[in-house]
TrEMBL record:
This protein's name: IS6 family transposase
Organism lineage: Bacteria, Pseudomonadati, Pseudomonadota, Alphaproteobacteria, Rhodospirillales
Superkingdom in the source lineage: Bacteria
Keyword field: DNA recombination, DNA-binding, Plasmid, Transposition
Domain Integrase catalytic: 68-232
């Protein structure tokens, strides 16, 4: 087996400091400058621009390493999209949770139409911990019926999957949007689509851990979560 490349090679700071910073930024509503001060209080001097680079580098890598450890989600999908600003323009964050509030998947898109919905559904279905849905609950967005019909026709979606356009049943995913918005707010928006996506991947990944979606790790056990994250990167506790 080929040895995995050390993701911390060449960094000025230790892997422990980097992972601590990444975990705290992605888990709590703080800015890069807030985190810079928190680290300084602990005797570590890191510029906020360096912290930004760490998030961009390690948030997607964290998701990639964590995905195989997720518990299966169920077949009752609650799908919705929320709005975020990137460089002053609105973009759409497609998100899906199951009936227990467990995150199924997410996708950032510049468009809100049937094609964007299909891309999101295909991405969610490709995850190893998801199942073909029995029900898909959405709002009154006309793009969803077309997307579901097209995917059933192309045999990408179970033909007996039931689409429900009932807004109040989607309260669970709409409430979940608030957590994302709360984390985004201290950063005062994003300047680039790629930057936004990489940061959002980190927010969603840490949220899955806090929801107890990682096998063998409690959602409230922050100590075990920190140890698990270190283990993912082969960092000694």
């Amino acid at each position: 087996m080929r040895k995995r490349k050390n993701p911390f090679k060449g960094r000025q700071f230790t892997s422990e400091v980097i992972l601590w910073s990444v975990r705290w930024y992605l888990q709590f509503p703080i800015s890069y400058r807030d985190l810079e001060l928190m680290l300084r209080d602990r005797g570590v001097s890191v510029d906020h621009t360096t912290l930004y680079r760490w998030i961009q580098a390690y948030a997607p890598e964290l998701e990639r390493r964590l995905r195989p450890h997720l518990r299966p989600t169920n077949g009752s999908w609650r799908v919705d999209e929320t709005y975020l600003k990137v460089k002053g323009r609105w973009v759409y964050l497609y998100r899906a949770v199951d009936s227990r509030g467990q995150t199924i998947d997410f996708r950032l898109s510049t468009r809100r139409d049937a094609q964007a919905a299909k891309r999101f559904f295909r991405k969610a279905l490709a995850r190893p911990n998801t199942v073909n849905p029995r029900t898909i609950t959405v709002d009154r967005n006309a793009a969803y019926p077309k997307a579901v019909a097209d995917m059933k026709r192309d045999k990408q979606l179970w033909r007996f999957a039931r689409l429900r356009q009932v807004k109040y049943l989607n309260n669970i995913v709409e409430q979940d949007h608030r957590r994302v918005k709360r984390l985004v707010r201290p950063g005062l928006g994003f300047r680039r689509f790629r930057t936004a996506w990489r940061t959002l991947v980190g927010y969603e990944t840490l949220a899955m851990m806090r929801k107890g979606q990682v096998k063998g790790i409690g959602g409230d056990d922050i100590v075990a979560q920190a140890a698990f994250m270190n283990a993912l990167f082969n960092v000694a506790a």
